[in-house]
Amino acid sequence: MKKRNIALFIVLVLTLSIGISVHAISLNAIDYNAPVPRTVLYDNDNVGGNASYDSTEFTATKGSGDTIRVWYDNKEKSSVTVTLYQYGWFGHKNAVLKFDVDGKSVNQGIYEASNADSGKYDINITASNGDIINGYLRANQSS
To answer: Are strands 80-87 and 120-127 parallel, antiparallel or unpaired?
Structure first.
């Protein structure tokens, strides 16, 4: 009976120690200085087209921050240019952010402005040599 209790105690201690070490690893993996996106404005993991792609129009959330981050994961060999447009008066579009993404790579651009949280936007992706576009596009809003 005594051996059985000792065995159960050892199993209990080992089980609890595994849970503590797994919990400690997950806490160390958190980057507390990283900005936390408050609002996902646009998310499409299946962006595709010939030579050019236009996202649907999306609206920033008032009070959720004046930073718009656009991220693109390029799955094709050709480089692309990503342009964030903000709609102005009478539907006129102004390019507020533009960045390039090399083939088979990931890049992001950041647009910061005092009025970024009160606007409508869309994103255009253009292949540098007119090739096929294929990738993952995401836009977040944060403070």
So the answer is: antiparallel
